[in-house]
């Protein structure tokens, strides 16, 4: 007789299986019945803290804190549309003006007074790539010790922005950006989850496993691309 | 969907952003509960609630009216909570055993309390549970909370986390396995 696996027992405990076969087996097999009983006991032992009670005014307080910061919905929708346009523009601009990327990269740092709204959205991604590049450079040259906490904190800070950028890139079917941000995400998660300081072994492992050099190159290329799209309004309005 | 929710959404989409207040008031408490269970922290849970409603507002135009707003905003809150713990996953292991943590878990299991020995034991159990939970990845923890506490199905967990149902099932399975291994130590000690 084949005994039930732990996975099958767990699925049965959570009523995830829809057949009677497991139940029948448990009735016939004392060993599995014992294992199932132990599992049930373990699960029953796992208790969570009750959520602190919220009074009836809680919802109103949440609303009060939110109300002032909500944009008009049409602006919110326009913002989403602008992000999509910005990504599309950036990709097309890369194809049309590849030879001017380096020059445009320099121009990105010029003052942006009275820029149209599209550029503001692009700068958000540019800023994210800029910060990511700095983190990668720091990691590339890190040797352990004092760099540990700034790297970890910066990785945590970048994680959420990276998720938003990844989502937009996927929606836009921008594979180059999406792939690079996926790789960046794995690195950020690794860095963010380091329990203690990064020692030289961990740094070396991350540098190798995550191919920090390659990722840094990709981020720089993407930055250049964003710089090109943000300094050429035509690219944003396609 | 609740008719009041439907009316409020219609009003918001028509330009009356104050109508969103009714949705916030009506769903905040539930969102706070699930956010607290996932983050394990009151302040973080409150942040998650606010972020979820803000994201919900921005995405409201993509909300399908045949869906249930409560379910929709709940999923957004779960994602926000997952993001929160993904970004914050720190050295929880090193915290186990600290006095503050022990006190927290004595409160958590206060209904057990029947005397000093019981309180000491409950604090130890709480610390062990927290250590066991800290061994889970953010996705495993979230999936486990949704399955074990919120009674969500694998499909619901998958939908909330944006993963395949089988991946959700596996996340719960791995979580239970890890927790059992860790908590086996507790049984030996007791």
Descriptive account of the structure:
The complex is a heterodimer of chains A (238) and B (190). With 238 residues, chain A is an all-alpha fold. Chain A has two domains: 6-45, no CATH class; 73-236, no CATH class. Chain A is built from twelve helices and no strands. Mean pLDDT of chain A is 74; it is low at 111-121 and 233-238. Chain B is an all-alpha fold and 190 residues long. Chain B has a domain at 1-88: Rna Polymerase Sigma Factor, Chain: A, CATH 1.10.1740. Helices cover 77% and strands 0% of the residues of chain B. Chain B has ten helices and no strands. Chain B has helices at 3-13, 20-39, 42-59, 69-88, 92-95, 99-108, 116-134, 138-149, 154-161, 165-189. In chain B, α3 crosses α4 and α6 packs across α7 (116-134). The longest helix of chain B is centred in the last third of the chain and has 25 residues, at 165-189. The termini of chain B are far apart. Classes of the chains: A mainly alpha (238), B mainly alpha (190).
Summarize the SSE layout with pairings:
The complex is a heterodimer of chains A (238) and B (190).
Chain A: H1 6-13, H2 21-28, H3 30-45, H4 58-67, H5 73-96, H6 101-107, H7 117-141, H8 148-171, H9 175-192, H10 200-209, H11 212-230, H12 233-236
Helix pairs in contact in A: 1-3, 2-3, 5-7, 5-11, 6-11, 7-8, 7-11, 8-9, 9-11
Chain B: H1 3-13, H2 20-39, H3 42-59, H4 69-88, H5 92-95, H6 99-108, H7 116-134, H8 138-149, H9 154-161, H10 165-189
Helix pairs in contact in B: 2-3, 2-4, 3-4, 6-7, 7-10, 8-9, 8-10, 9-10
Q: Give the count of structural domains of chain A.
A: 2
Largest interface: A-B, 46 and 59 residues
| Percent range of helical residues of chain B | over 70%
Approximately how much helix is present in the residues of chain A? over 70%
Could you spell the SSE succession of chain A in H and E letters? HHHHHHHHHHHH
Structural class of chain B: mainly alpha
- Look at the helices and sheets of chain A and give the structural class: mainly alpha
Main sheet of chain A, how many strands, which sense, barrel?
none
Strand percentage of chain A lies at under 5%
Cα separation of the termini of chain A? 66 Å
- CATH names the topology of the domain at 1-88 in chain B as Rna Polymerase Sigma Factor, Chain: A
What is the end-to-end distance of chain B? 49 Å
- For the report, how would you describe the main beta sheet of chain B? none
Q: Provide the low-confidence segments of chain B as ranges.
A: 90-115
Could you tell me the radius of gyration of chain A in angstroms?
A: 26 Å
Number of strands of chain B: 0
Look at the structure and name the CATH superfamily of the domain at 1-88 in chain B: RNA polymerase sigma factor, region 2, helix turn helix motif
CATH architecture classification of the domain at 1-88 in chain B: Orthogonal Bundle
Number of strands of chain A: 0
Rg of Cα set of chain B: 19 Å
Mean pLDDT of chain A: 74
